[in-house]
Write a structure and sequence with these properties.
- The protein is mainly β.
- Helices cover 6% and strands 50% of the residues.
Length: 375
């Protein structure tokens, strides 16, 4: 709902960048008459509608006619490191009438981060590129998205994902194996994000990914194993104008169950005020699910020395009769993505407790705290 990530604001925040790039002339710009005609034919993004079934493997791939899309990986490596890898695709307002290979019809953006307690803050890298000359792209038909040399690819033969990230401070080469079919969020994949029906995304998750691979940092390279969470969403709508941001969690619990929950907060509202929109889906170990309205309550705040944002990094989360407490791996997991998607947000590895006992691990995303999201 990408900032997640869920991940709706992070991806949507890319749109101002998309429009700035779209406004720059390309090497093969159309004639003035062509440009005038293209302007008259405004870009129309298809709506997200209830009742449209998701179909796999096709819906693992890109949906280029929609305004925004993101593929989002989070998880833990061993018991001491968190990771995040997110790719975004944004369709710009640049007219399809321009046939140039350099025309920025689509933008690809990516974030990657490692949360290492020994560092005390995130190792983070980001990239952005237009889909030109094969250096960046998002394939239709199955998951294959890349900004050379970063990539996220699904092997259709064994339903296994590979994430490859190479950055100056760290590198990840991870294989991620699902143990269950996609978990459709909302109403069979139609996920509401606000009070109006059009404020929605198509959304599915793949919790409890078995992770294995290699991680490189300044301390060298080592093999790692862990557990991850994957989200894929696409949409054409921005957040409600009254929204400030959202809180989102994806939690893998030790009993084999999984929980996704989010709330979209109102601008200028008190912390305990009713949200603009919220939902949660709990998947039991046998694959069955139940939905409930989640209640988020801050337990402790941390103020960023860089942005000045005050984040509720420790949270109490109630879903039906279950009360969970989320504790961050460490406080400073703020991610500054202003050079790609234009946002600052908190995206952090958290430990899950219930009745004083650790019961799982996952990721918490907090957006709109540095400033209300302007999409």
């Amino acid at each position: 709902m990408r900032a997640r990530r869920r991940r709706l604001a992070a991806a949507l925040a890319a749109l101002p960048l998309a429009n700035r790039v779209a406004a720059t002339p390309s090497p093969a710009a159309p004639s003035a008459r062509d440009a005038a005609g293209a302007t008259a034919d405004a870009i129309r993004y298809p709506p997200v509608r209830a009742g449209v079934p998701l179909r796999f493997p096709a819906d693992h791939g890109s949906h280029p006619e929609f305004r925004i899309e993101w593929w989002y990986l989070t998880g833990w490596l061993e018991r001491d490191a968190g990771f995040q890898v997110t790719f975004f695709r944004a369709r710009t307002t640049h007219s399809d009438a321009n046939p140039s290979r350099f025309a920025p019809h689509q933008l690809i953006l990516a974030h990657a981060a490692l949360a290492l307690p020994s560092r005390g803050r995130l190792l983070h890298a980001q990239r952005a590129a237009r889909t030109a000359l094969g250096l960046a792209g998002a394939a239709e038909g199955d998951t294959r998205i890349w900004i050379d040399p970063w990539q996220l690819v699904r092997n259709a033969g064994n339903d296994r994902y590979r994430a490859l990230i190479t950055a100056p401070e760290f590198a990840l080469d991870l294989q991620l194996q699902p143990d269950r079919p996609p978990l459709l969020q909302g109403d069979a994949g139609f996920s509401r994000k606000g009070p109006r029906p059009e404020q929605a995304s198509y959304y599915y998750s793949r919790p409890h990914l078995a992770v294995m691979g290699r991680m490189r940092t300044g301390n060298g390279e080592r093999s790692v194993t862990g557990r991850g969470w994957f989200d894929h969403e696409w949409s054409s709508e921005i957040l409600d104008e009254r929204a400030s941001g959202w809180d989102w969690v994806g939690l893998n619990l030790d009993d084999g169950s999984a929980l996704m929950a989010f709330r979209i907060r109102l601008r200028d509202a008190e912390p305990q005020a009713a949200p603009l929109w919220s939902t949660a889906r709990w998947q039991r170990p046998d694959g069955s699910t139940f939905d409930a309205a989640p209640v988020f309550a801050p337990l402790r705040h941390w103020r960023s020395p860089r942005s000045g944002a005050l984040y509720p990094v420790a949270m109490r989360l109630q879903v039906a009769d279950r009360v969970l407490e989320l504790a961050p791996l460490f406080d400073d997991q703020e991610l500054d993505a202003r050079s790609s998607t234009g946002t600052i947000y908190w995206e952090g590895a958290v430990v899950v407790h219930e009745a004083g006992r650790e019961i799982g691990r996952g990721y918490l995303e907090l957006t709109g705290y540095a400033a209300p999201l302007r999409l």
